[in-house]
Write a structure and sequence with these properties.
SAM-dependent_MTases_sf; 6 helices; two-stranded antiparallel ribbon; Protein-lysine methyltransferase METTL21C; alpha/beta; about 210 residues; Methyltransf_16; globular; methyltransferase activity; 8-stranded mixed β-sheet; Rossmann fold
Length: about 210
């Protein structure tokens, strides 16, 4: 099947705020307030997160997250994890140690008063301590979510190894990314060599591709 061509909808809602670094979004009937930080790449909402959040909201029959175990790698501000939680998933949101405080704040703020599975926030450095921190005998995920984890950085091989580690038989990887550099396409080629991957949707205005693997 050819990928669907979509636009990233303006679910962002401008609000008067005393904080320049808070953004308001609406997904699955819930207003989500995200605190961003200019100190870390992982503390900003990137286009891939908006694309995947929108896709999960619009394709709940195809990707039913209710009571599913979901792991987000490179969760950043937590927007995608929050949306997955609203959709009924058991969510584990992971990122680097320096991002976890802001990530935990956003997830707690946006899920504390909801009747849903409470998300877990954990440290995950790609390629490091996987068998110790997430032993296969204990941890199995139905979905792995990742958005804008591929950009100009040196950890692409550990990232691919991390994706391969968590993707066991029956696991679905949903990866949305803004394609900027030749290295992004090289990563895509490596991913397709390991996984059975297809492009679900493309967002041409933002150069975002959404893949299922």
């Amino acid at each position: 099947d050819s990928p669907v061509t979509l636009k990233i909808l303006q679910n962002w809602v401008p609000r008067v705020s005393h904080y320049f670094d808070k953004e308001h979004y609406t997904y699955v009937g819930h207003q989500i307030v995200i605190q961003e930080s200019i100190e870390h790449f992982g503390a900003v909402v990137w286009p891939g997160a908006l694309a995947l959040s929108q896709y999960l909201e619009s394709n709940q029959e195809q990707f039913n997250l209710k009571d599913k175990k979901v792991l987000e790698i490179g969760a950043g501000t937590g927007l995608v994890s929050i949306v997955a939680c609203i959709l009924g998933a058991y969510v584990t949101a992971t990122d680097l140690p320096e991002v976890l405080e802001n990530l935990s704040y956003n997830i707690s703020r946006n899920t504390q008063n909801m009747n849903m599975h409470k998300p877990e926030v954990r440290k995950l450095v790609w390629g490091e301590g996987l068998t110790e921190d997430f032993p296969v005998s204990t941890y199995h995920y139905d979905f792995i979510l990742a958005t804008d984890v591929v950009y100009h950085h040196a950890a692409l091989d550990p990232l691919l190894a991390t994706m391969a580690y968590f993707c066991k038989p029956g696991t679905v990887l949903l990866w949305a990314n803004k394609f900027r550099f030749s290295t992004d396409y090289e990563f895509l080629e490596k991913l397709c060599n390991i996984f059975n991957a297809t492009i679900l949707a493309e967002f041409p205005e933002s150069n975002v591709k959404l893949l299922k693997a």
